[in-house]
Amino acid sequence: MIFNKKFAPLLIPVISVLLGLLVGGIIMLISGYNPIAGYQALWLGAFGDAFTIGETIRRTTPLILTGLAIAFAFRSGLFNIGAEGQVIVGWLASVWVGIGIEAPMIIHLPLAILAGMLAGALWGLVPGLLKATLGVHEVIVTIMMNYIALYVSNEIIRSVLTDHATKTEQIASSASLSAEWLQSLTMYSRVHYGILIAIFAAAIMWFLIERTTIGYELKSVGYNQFASRYAGMNVKKNIILSMVISGGFAGVAGAMEGLGTYGNIHLMSGFTNLGFDGIAVALLGSNHALGVVIAAFLFGSLKEGAGQMPTSAGVPIELVDIIIALIIFFVASSYIIRLAILRFKKEGK
Amino acid sequence: DETADTDNSNANEGEDSSDFSVAMVTDIGGVDDKSFNQSAWEGISAWGEEHGLSKGNGFDYAQSNAPEDYVPNITRMVREGYSLIYGIGFELKEDIQNLANQNPDVYFGIVDDVVEGDNTVSITFKEHEGSFLVGVAAAMKTETNKLGFVGGIDSPLINKFEAGFIAGAKSINPDIEVDVQYAEHFGDASKGKMIANDMYNSGVDIIYHAAGGTGNGVFNEAKDLKNADPERAIWVIGVDRDQHDEGQIGEHNVTLTSMVKRVDVAVQDVAQLAMDGEFPGGEQLEFGLEENAISVATTNEEAMTEEIINEVKKWEESILNGDIEIPYTREALEEYLDSL
Amino acid sequence: MEYVIEMLNIRKEFPGIVANDNITVQLKKGEIHALLGENGAGKSTLMNVLFGLYQPEQGEIRVNGKPVKITNPNIANDLGIGMVHQHFMLVEPFTVTQNIILGSEPKTKFGTINLKKAEKEIQELSDRYGLKVDPTAKIRDISVGMQQRVEILKTLYRGAEVLIFDEPTAVLTPQEITELIEIMQSLVKEGKSIILITHKLKEIMEACDRCTVIRKGKGIGTVDVKETTVNELASLMVGRDVNFQVSKTPAEPKHEVLEVKDLYVKDSRKVDVVKGLDLKVRAGEIVGVAGIDGNGQTELIEAITGLTKSYRGNILLNKKDITNKTPREVTESGLGHIPQDRHKYGLVLDYTIGENIVLQTYYQKPYSKNTILNHDAIYKKAEELIAMYDVRTPSAFTPARALSGGNQQKAIIAREVERSPELLIAAQPTRGLDVGAIEFVHQKLVEERDKGKAILLVSFELDEILDVSDRIVVIYDGRIVADLDAKETNERELGLLMAGSGTDKAGVSK
Amino acid sequence: MIDLLQSIVPTILFFSAPLILTALGGVFSERSGVVNIGLEGLMVIGAFVGIVFSLTYQSTFGTLTPWIAIVVAAIIGGIFSIIHAVASVSFYANQVVSGVAINMLALGIGVYLTKQWYDKGQTDMVEGFFRTDIPVLSNIPVIGPIFFERVYATSYLAIILAFVAWFVLYKTTFGLRLRAVGEHPMAADTNGINVKKIRYIAVVLSGILGGLGGSVFALTIVSNFSQSTIVGQGFISLAAVIFGKWHPLGAMGAAIFFGFAQSLSIVGSSIPVIEDIPQVFLLIAPYVLTILALAGLIGRADAPKANGVPYIKGSR
Ligand SMILES: Nc1ncnc2c1ncn2[C@@H]1O[C@H](COP(=O)(O)OP(=O)(O)OP(=O)(O)O)[C@@H](O)[C@H]1O
Ligand SMILES: Nc1ncnc2c1ncn2[C@@H]1O[C@H](COP(=O)(O)OP(=O)(O)OP(=O)(O)O)[C@@H](O)[C@H]1O
Ligand SMILES: [Mg+2]
Ligand SMILES: [Mg+2]
């Protein structure tokens, strides 16, 4: 029992990761690759040197934020599949401000991030409003909003931000998150200050959810709308607020790409997948702020490391997708793992 | 700017030529995309094999699954000591530029866009020339005087195809109508099919696509129509490489021709130059008909009649002679059409 | 004597608790056998074992003398055992017929469900036992009493010879209870045998032949109902003497706290249900609202508490107009509310007891400051209340879901009373509670009254209304039709008034 | 007008068919109480199997190949979906998590195996389904040319299956039990219905239908398999499930609505009035229309009550 309470939240993911890697190794063996070489490549690809570490952190940054976005909505009983679209508009807005305004960094950078946040929030507001006022299912609306974001932002890049170009000019350095010293420290990886923002956002999410009356209300509405109304909470307001905040997190994720990684925005021919990966990150992190950070880091490392596998070990990158999927499965099936642990414990005694 | 003080970029000069190695980083799609990633890889492989090298040993590629993969991939190649690294596709422009600035000792090449610096070379193609020629072919072939153009994403690069195609078609017959549609996606076959369905329904009999995977839907629709009525004249014009195979339907083939972009030729040429110590640093090389890097496929002998081929040849001559300037933007196209 | 069912030395454990510890129950053919015990004593568990939902760790079950293993409800069905569950097992969007045939559907020769045939059979069954059920009605459209009859029909349709009723009367109105008892008696006459779980000793005395008592998971014994008294049953069950008579001094009503004037409210289907209702409650008195379910009680409470809107009339709380204010505003004006449906309204089941304790006050000091929660204050308060109100829970950090119904109710009462509201509305505050818990709740209400609070008690239990109230108003068809002194009326008179006869009786403050 | 219909209707039909099939799968699964956001992945598996089978056996089975291919894809889809069933029914997993995993796993496996078997990221093209005239029906005046001339048989397969699904769900004992399980599993359990078995069947049905949907998509529209064969169709199908209020015919209607909206956005560019509207508005029109339709007409849709809740015997 004690063991359940204290360690299960950590033990289950760890076991899941190990199992996922184990099965991944078996798949490599079956397909005729050397799993040791494969994993060595994976490791080197993620943590081999300062550069890859930098890139791993960079890749983790937006994942933390989209993970938080989805986790936040989940905590209040809403499923935000729309992080994808919120990322795109957040990216767009932050770059827009990054290009369109001249101001000292101390104003410009926060303003650009804020713009991303607001754009994402706006994109979350629509499904939130529709859900709260008309009871329209947020899942459909957010899916639709993803496509709208994609096409609208492409059009804006093409017709408003540029004269029919595929990407915008670079943002002013006063709006940039990248830092020379960080990059040179990591052999010119694209790691940027965004990671601090992401971790700060996680802290905010934790604080908001666990420590404030806002979080108390949001969770309460998520669990039981009737009782929340009975207790005097404004259910509609909370649904809208939840989607808005969730969208805000995703919007900041977009800003990380716009102000940190790329410094511009390009025409997108498909989704960034940051939003969809965020679902997995959120659930892997069991919708807790700290869990999300860890899960995003795991995801980021695996995905970053994957790039090395074809070159060094000949293993297709997709193996990593399979491994990630397996890990998610094992986490989802924690019940059975827990059962196995219990049995194991009993026999051990 | 860093490039300013890196004029010592030819550190490779002293290197033994046998140490020379080449790598490429794909854009999203991979080396087997049946498109220019594949073509580029074929060029590099050909170059490598010519010099007795093998994959992973003298030449290699890194595949990108998302834009964020470009930098790590390029960096990996830098780290592994490749002498010349290509970024395939305009999407890699910024990243190639940045890494070129950071690594003045390594040669970089970008395909389909322009970067700056003494250690870089930019390889672009005159797609408008090829598009012009397939436009000519289409104009010769059409029975309805209605042509279609399906673009992937509305962007300057794809606009080149569009402008060239329309110019070519109208040069033969100014009354020809060209229906232009963009799918806003390079991988949405269902949209491609829907657009093709709509175009063929409205009387278009030849569609030129510059839309990657979206083009699959165009081929699919054309073949379906052909299957229903083998007598009906329905054509697709392929892009980037000879898409003859995609057009095969039973006895018939709906691929009229393809606008072939020989990335392999360009990539191989530049690799050879670099190896020979003649790296065209800082230059922007534009490959076109003249360099044999743009061509019009004639695999479908039945469809590409003597007459058509001759006409195409005629225009090709004019282009090579510099008699005509092919428009590659919508504005230039307007002017060109006015001048007709 | 033949036993149809024998449960011998049954033991059933749940993680950390022995729910049934060596219990024996023997059911005679043709009898109504009561099962009595405090909340959490293990009654439902025992019956779930009999019905095959749980497997016992130990013990034997015999049906007609033959030992059987009941590993799932199908086997119970085959053995002729049917169960009417405490929480109805009905699929709301389905019709009565669909619910009844579910799992043993008659088929046409094309393999589809033969609804016509089923409906006819069910109509026949219903007529035979006088159940008056409409086979084509949707469950969500029929009353709770009707739903229960559907549950009964379900067992009969499957040919049950033994029927288990788990607290069937907790959710019924007095009329429905009387009818249910009649139904049970007619079932017994047809040769069926019945096990009845109930907390209402009067019902046991009225309807049952024998009674088995369980206390804290252990069987205390079986008594013949004719040879026992209510008091004896109560003390057997609780292990001490229970005081049924609510001890209280005469009320000393003071100023008016609640005044409802000419109120009109529509229900969710947009039909008028409260139609020009007038009501006054004064400080220091308990006003009981007697009435048959569906006469506007629910909507009246919802309108007062701000959960629904009225479209005419006024509600004054301490002279302040609270008509159509939000629940938050109403609460802040000094209203406490023990809701009728504790799972839906009263608690956030996934929140801890502590979090539930501050459900309306979390945003106030000391529980939070500048929107930042103060967990220490919250849990300190919770622990205080847990001790004061004897809420049985492992800790204040336990989720509300894990508590028994009685203890959940105590937590709600603790919360509402503790806020010390000027007006306390208590809707069905003792539904499903055992006599010990009921005694406790009643005592609390009286204590509050004595502190000078106004209390509005809504209940379908006439006993409760009569025992606890100082003044009784009768609600009928959306209006208050009588206003009586509790000491000067009786069940008979109330019953008549509630049924709508004697509307012209004096005392209506119009 | 008739001309317009004649050009629009067949488009709608081919676009909607895979969505209808997949959405039907979603209806079965969710009606039994298992949330299925893995529809996208199930379609990927279907597309992959459909194409690989066709490539391998085109020469053996000739024109029958696509038909056999979709059957095989359906079977493999069904088998693949057992993973989701095991996780969400037996292991009480969070069903959304499991669905997300299904999506990643399917794409991972599909592309991984493509690389293993063909040594490249995408397969060659196959000859899939072709349009045909439906005998007899296509001769009906007016209606015939619009609805039954030059259509894919698979479109009608989808529509027929929607009615079959409706029949199964609302007229058979299996359907009654399945719906009961999705609304109130404990009630079903006490009536002697094997909740887990029903849910397994429902999830596997969603795999079969999703596999069917994916393979039909690949064999009527794309003609090959790659990373980007299925890009969001599964999510649109999921939207159709909800849009259609978890009803097979509703889901079909929603899928057809999506087809209509898409088709309109393309055909629109050649209709005089609409012609002048900037392209981007046409592009987003299908999605905006959907939102408007939901907000204005459809409104609240209540999911099956037990949807997403693992059934653990003996808990409340
Ligand atoms: N599924 C379960 N898991 C764990 N504990 C349980 C479970 N069901 C019942 N219990 C525990 O077993 C004990 C007996 O519960 P049971 O439901 O039999 O009580 P009861 O006599 O029916 O109570 P009530 O009068 O409130 O209906 C309680 O302490 C309860 O907490
Ligand atoms: N999974 C569980 N874990 C712990 N306790 C449980 C569980 N399931 C049921 N119980 C307990 O079983 C007991 C009896 O449940 P029962 O269904 O009889 O409801 P109850 O307590 O009588 O409440 P009510 O009358 O309000 O419905 C309660 O104490 C309840 O908390
Ligand atoms: Mg009970
Ligand atoms: Mg109870």
From TrEMBL, chain A:
The keyword Transmembrane helix applies. The chain crosses the membrane at residues 7-30, 61-79, 85-101, 191-209, 239-262, 274-299, 319-341. It is found in: Cell membrane. It is a multi-pass membrane protein. Keywords: Cell membrane, Membrane, Transmembrane, Transmembrane helix. InterPro entries: ABC_transp_permease. This is ABC transporter permease. It comes from Oceanobacillus luteolus. The lineage of its organism: Bacteria, Bacillati, Bacillota, Bacilli, Bacillales.
UniProtKB/TrEMBL annotation, chain C:
SUPFAM superfamilies: P-loop containing nucleoside triphosphate hydrolases. PROSITE patterns: ABC_TRANSPORTER_1, ABC_TRANSPORTER_2. Keywords: ATP-binding, Nucleotide-binding. The keyword Nucleotide-binding applies. GO terms for molecular function: ATP binding. SMART domains: AAA. Pfam families: ABC_tran (PF00005). Coiled coil: none annotated. Residues 5-241, 258-502 form the ABC transporter domain. It comes from the Bacteria. This is ABC transporter ATP-binding protein.
UniProtKB/TrEMBL annotation, chain D:
Signal peptide: none annotated. Its main location: membrane. It holds the Pfam family BPD_transp_2. Keywords: Cell membrane, Membrane, Transmembrane, Transmembrane helix. The chain crosses the membrane at residues 7-28, 34-55, 67-86, 92-113, 153-170, 200-219, 255-274, 280-298. It is a multi-pass membrane protein. It is found in: Cell membrane. PANTHER family: GUANOSINE ABC TRANSPORTER PERMEASE PROTEIN NUPQ, SUGAR ABC TRANSPORTER INTEGRAL MEMBRANE PROTEIN-RELATED. This is ABC transporter permease.
